[in-house]
Amino acid sequence: GDLLNSSNLVCAIGFDRDGEFFATAGVNKKIKIFECDSIIKDGRDIHYPVVELASRSKLSGISWNSYIKSQIASSNFEGVV
């Protein structure tokens, strides 16, 4: 895919409570979770997520649960959380 394509637009980014992972969400209707250390230490231009979750709608926001590390919330442009 084209990295400059508007369908890859990231609308939100969030970090987990320990700074081990971060997630992106956007108009491609996906939440992509990346490992922070692999991004920082690896000199590659392209990185792949460790997990990818699909949504039915374009995503506008994302937030990790600060108490339960494995939970993440998202919101979409239709106002659904």
Outline the biggest β-sheet: 4 strands, antiparallel
User: Which spans of ≥5 residues are poorly predicted at pLDDT below 50?
Assistant: none
Give the helix level as a range of percent. under 10%
The gyration radius over C-alpha positions equals 13 Å
Strand residue percentage: 35-45%
Order of the strands making up the biggest sheet: 1-2-3-4
Q: Structural class of the secondary elements?
A: mainly beta
Overall 3D geometry?
flat
Overview of this protein structure:
There is one protein chain. The termini are far apart. The chain has one domain. By secondary structure, it is mainly β. The protein contains 1 helix and 6 strands. The strands form 2 sheets. It has a 4-stranded antiparallel sheet. A two-stranded antiparallel sheet has the order 5-6. A hairpin with a 3-residue loop joins strand 2 and strand 3.
